[in-house]
Write a structure and sequence with these properties.
The complex is a heterodimer of chains A (272) and B (213).
Chain A: H1 20-23, H2 38-42, E1 53-57, E2 63-65, H3 69-72, E3 77-84, E4 89-99, H4 100-106, E5 115-120, E6 144-148, H5 149-152, E7 158-163, E8 166-167, E9 177-179, E10 192-198, H6 205-209, E11 233-236, E12 246-249
Parallel strand pairs in A: 1-10, 4-11
Antiparallel strand pairs in A: 1-2, 3-4, 4-7, 5-6, 5-10, 7-8, 7-9, 11-12
Chain B: H1 7-33, H2 41-70, H3 79-101, H4 106-115, H5 117-134, H6 138-144, H7 146-152, H8 154-169, H9 175-189, H10 192-212
Helix pairs in contact in B: 1-2, 1-3, 2-3, 2-9, 3-5, 4-5, 5-8, 6-7, 8-9
Classes of the chains: A alpha+beta (272), B mainly alpha (213).
Chain lengths: 272, 213
């Protein structure tokens, strides 16, 4: 359904948007199958209302948002972000939501909190991929992700509840998902039920699955290859068919240079 | 009276193979060109041509055990066609990779072939299939005599390389590649006597060369 939001102002781009039908028909969401077209096929009955999103852990005031709160608690704005998948393809997507920092502030984080841990809904009845290791790509569900607290509080880190002017389709992570545009797509965890502030580095799903291929940071970095393919360039999913495909150079931090200060003391080769 | 395939059936079977192999290839490329083949036509084409090449290669390896089992010696006549289509699909797979995935970035192609083991083995398999396709005519077969069979036994190595290429290329879910490994090993096990003979001969040759040196 349609959303009430202020159109993109600060976070815009000259890039051509990836067409809506490609954004909603080509997804990695292993809870609904490991193929790119499985989520759209298997997620349509997914029930998002009622929903509970809890923010707890090292906070002054733990809170739980219900389904309606997701769209009303904070003012919604549109942001156009590039999304770079670790598989070396990318999209340009108009998201709708609010900044993650504003959400976390609602719970009043304690000064000892160093990390933010995220968790996807665990509901094997609704999510066929969670029923067995075979159907879910070997992942030990629920899917978990994490950010350092300063990354989470960066103005770019975004919680999306919609795209292309409407609420998120289930395959894109309804009703609420993370979007961290300077990191590979798998960091942007979907269908979140819990956000927990902690002083310990939280486990992250793809890192558990293959630590030599997927690190905790997963910052987009053209200089550090995935062991099995180059990350120096990417193919933009755009309009047009086979003969209109473009391979473009990948930019450091996916072009979001403003996050560079977060990592000035970090060896990004080792902390990939 | 037992049913026997005659030449008419073989011709009909070949026509069926041509139609079943060529039309989907053409149609899939057409869909990709008008942007009707998933959101990422390049990935879809890569997967389609790759998996079809593997299917055809396995089918070509199924021919001789099947001919023996069913006592239909003439069936062997469709093997070359299946093998050539396996090669054609593998070549398309490689060309899609060069033209549309890498966009003719030749230095990248070279470094990927060298640096990425799954691409290295895939490329090696393609080289073997190319050699087999180039020597597949009756004339060359007659010219090469016993060497021809030796050369074409390389297909057993090719199928293992292709299976390795597939399992190394997937991100996490290896169910499908494992099924293909099982099929490949079953088909190779049909040749176990032949492979054993070849292995023992190599061992004997190895010992012989050691004792002479």
């Amino acid at each position: 359904s349609a959303l009430d939001y202020s159109p993109a102002k600060h976070y815009v781009t000259d890039d051509i948007y990836t067409p809506e039908d490609k954004v909603i028909n080509y997804n990695n969401f292993y809870e609904f199958g490991t193929g790119k077209s499985d989520p759209v096929a298997n997620a349509q009955g997914f029930k998002v209302d009622p929903w509970h999103l809890t923010i707890d852990g090292m906070v002054e005031k733990p809170i739980t948002l219900g389904y309606d709160d997701l769209f009303k608690k904070l003012a919604l704005e549109e942001r156009i972000y590039r999304l770079r998948c670790v598989e070396a393809w990318s999209m340009v997507i108009p998201w709708i939501g609010f900044s993650l920092a504003d959400l976390i502030k609602q719970a009043q984080p304690l000064s000892g909190a160093k990390y933010v841990a995220f968790e996807t809904l665990y509901d094997p009845k609704q999510m066929p991929g969670q029923r067995s290791r075979f159907s879910g790509g070997g992942i030990d569900y629920p899917y978990v992700e994490g950010l350092r607290i300063d990354e989470a509080m960066h103005p770019l880190a975004f919680m999306a509840v919609g795209l292309y002017g409407k609420t998120l389709p289930p395959q894109n992570g309804a009703p609420i998902r993370l979007v961290v545009p300077w990191k590979y797509g798998f960091k942007s965890i979907k269908s979140i039920t819990r956000i927990k502030l902690t002083d310990k580095k939280p486990p992250t799903t793809w890192n558990l699955l293959g630590a030599n291929e997927y690190g905790f940071y997963a910052n987009v970095n053209p200089e550090v290859d995935h062991p099995r393919w180059t990350q120096a360039s990417e193919r933009r999913i755009t309009t047009g068919g086979l003969f209109n495909q473009s391979r473009i150079p990948t930019q450091m931090f996916n072009g979001y240079d403003e996050v560079a200060p977060l990592y000035k003391n970090l060896d990004l080769r080792r902390n990939y | 009276m037992a049913f026997r395939l005659n030449h008419k059936y073989i011709i009909a079977l070949k026509v069926v193979i041509h139609l079943a192999a060529f039309i989907p290839l053409l149609y899939t490329f057409y869909l990709a060109s008008i942007d009707q083949l998933s959101a990422d036509p390049v990935k879809a084409l890569l997967h389609f041509t790759g998996i079809s090449a593997f299917n055809l290669l396995l089918l070509s390896l199924l021919v001789s055990p099947l001919a023996k089992q069913l006592r239909q010696a003439l069936l062997i006549n469709v093997r070359r066609l299946l093998g050539l289509y396996a090669f054609a699909y593998a070549l398309c797979h490689f060309l899609v990779y060069i033209f549309f995935e890498l966009q003719l970035n030749w230095t990248l192609l070279l470094s990927e072939i060298i640096k990425r083991p799954y691409i290295t083995v895939g490329f090696a398999a393609l080289l073997i299939l190319t050699a087999l396709a180039l020597t597949s005519t009756k004339t060359i077969q007659r010219k090469l005599k016993t060497k021809w069979q030796k050369l074409h036994n390389w297909v057993y190595l090719a199928v293992l390389l292709v299976a390795l290429h597939f399992i190394w290329s997937v991100k996490s879910d290896i169910t499908e590649p494992l099924i293909y490994w099982a099929m490949s090993l079953i088909l190779l096990s049909q040749r176990k006597d032949k492979l054993k003979q070849w292995w023992q001969k190599r061992k004997r040759q190895g010992q012989a060369s050691k004792s002479t040196s």
